[in-house]
Amino acid sequence: KILKSKIKYLIAFVLTFFIYNCGTPKYADKLPLAGITLTIDPGHGNTEAYDSIRIGPSGEREEWINLRVALILRDLLQEAGARVIMTRETNRDLNLGGRAAIAKINNSDLFISIHHNGSLNDNELDFPLVYYWGDASENPASIKFANSLLEEMLTDMKFENTEGAGVYSDFLIYSEGTSVLRNTFPILPGIIGEAGYFSNSISEARMKDKNFNRLEAQSYFKAIIRYAANGLPKAIPMVTKTEDLIGDSLIIFKLTDGLGGHEFEASVFRVSANDTVIDFEWNDSSGELSLIYDNSYEVIEIKIYGRNLSGNSLHPRKWKFFSEIGKAKRWQGKWHEAFDRAESLSKDVNLIIESEKDSSEYMSQLLDMIHWYKRSIELQAHHPKSAAAELGIADLYKLLYYETQNVKFKEEALFHYRRTFEYCPGSIKESNAKTGYDELSSG
Ligand SMILES: [Zn+2]
Fold this sequence. Notes:
The protein is an alpha/beta fold. It has 3 domains: 228 residues, 3-Layer(aba) Sandwich (Aminopeptidase), CATH 3.40.630; 94 residues, Immunoglobulin-like (Sandwich); 112 residues, Tetratricopeptide repeat domain (Serine Threonine Protein Phosphatase 5, Tetratricopeptide repeat). It contains 13 helices and 14 strands. The chain has a 6-stranded mixed β-sheet with strand order 2-1-3-6-4-5, sandwiched between helices. Strands 7-8-12-11 form a 4-stranded antiparallel β-sheet, with no helix packed on it. A 4-stranded antiparallel β-sheet has the order 10-9-13-14. A hairpin with a 2-residue loop joins strand 9 and strand 10. Helix 10 runs antiparallel to helix 11 and helix 11 packs antiparallel against helix 12. It is elongated. 40% of the residues are buried. The structure holds zinc ion. The site of zinc ion has 5 residues, from loops.
């Protein structure tokens, strides 16, 4: 049995070697992965001291196999023109959050985490698995690549019994999925590859063989080449920074199909804002997709689903936009700047009252002042003017209550009067607050 499987993979290896090495130069025209960034993550690393689980029957450690395969893959990808980011290149450990962060900060197009499987329960098992994150309908690009990868592994690596091989959601491992895929998913597609079981002694023996490691690396490589050949579609908002959208309710995305144009299957498009499907306009001649977002949200998360004509999907990455309200909430400055903003607005309020403008403008000014008084206290809990800010908030809510007769405003006003005299005892504001409280609660 051992001999048979060895011969099988040797034949496969020789064939692969032949296919990839006949004809020079290797890439006559354009490098097939030019312009593409891949993050390769060899799982684990330097865990000998405490991990006695991820180790084969003869002592080969999973993390060593992962690294050998990853280093060969790195070289193949670089030769093909890819920019390759490695989470590790030596036998060292790196936390899971760090691995995902490396993929994200480098604007990677694809995250590939290389692992091998182990079973404490059944040392006969040996088949490949590829994991993607979460729900299949939310992760089409990762699944497309995962399917190609599984096919290549099954074709080239010659597993004895492939029952159980497949592309699976990582929700099958953990209820919230794996850390690396959960944390890369909001930005880019990614997979975890598990090309066989090191807990199977026959499989462990071939995983120790560098030629077999190369065969495995070539499975990844071929799958990447196939995937990239169909284009990596992208949707990019037409602003320099997403946070610059303050006050704007129209967002335009520029779509590229990854094949030099912007041809998409129009019927597949879907756009969601905060997980609700919204309307959009698609212009197939300019490649622009326009949508209107609801300004009443503080933060709007836009996701675009689509597919190019070669069948490769846009990864529905999350684009975060801050509305005017959201932007104000996130405002960071000195407490006294926030306090001064509130004070200066009170002049505007007086002008509005004098000019007898409509009440909606008056109301929004009052709410604005409340916001800035509150922000000053949030930034610095006990600042020299916090009593004045609390009293200001209470008085403003009282005005809102008089304007609208909405009891919510009355409750807020009473709450902030109480805060003024409870939290700022002895201040000049204390007696004013008590007066305001008595007036309002009796009135
Ligand atoms: Zn692993």
